[in-house]
Amino acid sequence: MKKWFTMMALALCALTLTACGGGAPAKSSGSSAPAPKNETTATDKKAADVSTGKRALVVYFSRAYENYNVGYIEKGNTRILAEMIAEATGADTFEIKPAKPYPKEYTPATELAKKEKNENARPEIVGTMPDVSKYDVIFLGYPIWWGDLPMPCYTFFDKVKLEGKTVAPFCTHEGSGLSGTDRYIADTTKAKVTEALEMKGATAQKNRGEAKKEVMDWLKKLGYGK
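-> structure tokens emitted (226 positions)
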């Protein structure tokens, strides 16, 4: 009987699982969805991928609500990829979240994003910044806004020292591709930037199977997974 209780306890412990997770401004599809909880989290679990032994952190900026080519969405395009990466690698997660949220509608959001870029602004972000010294790899996710990273990402770079760290960028877009943002990250942070993953937001949002395949193929190139 004692052996049976021990086996049951071990089985329950094996069921524990965690995950977290983005997008860019957009055209309306005419449908609306409830707003997602906008929480900033930095977990402190064991984040070592079994295939590499490396501790990983997924940092991402993402925006839901009205997005280009997908309408109103509950979960931003980049956040979807962030969740997939965190699940596949066992990584901790941290969301770059502006203190003042962007407008829910597409056009006002893009106008504000353009104004911030032109002014080289550093919008305030909330939450306790993660201790990146604990991690070997930083996966960095963002949508492409006006050919660049959203400006809150640069606020994060100002607050967190990434020099010398390995940064693996991933981004969502609707035709612009990576837009040279891997170089912007390297120049700004002095980090070691790996090959990036770029994906259309519509693929992440509407074709999760294809999105996951692209994520897994990218992770394998970086040495994660079999």
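The chain has one domain: 18-221.
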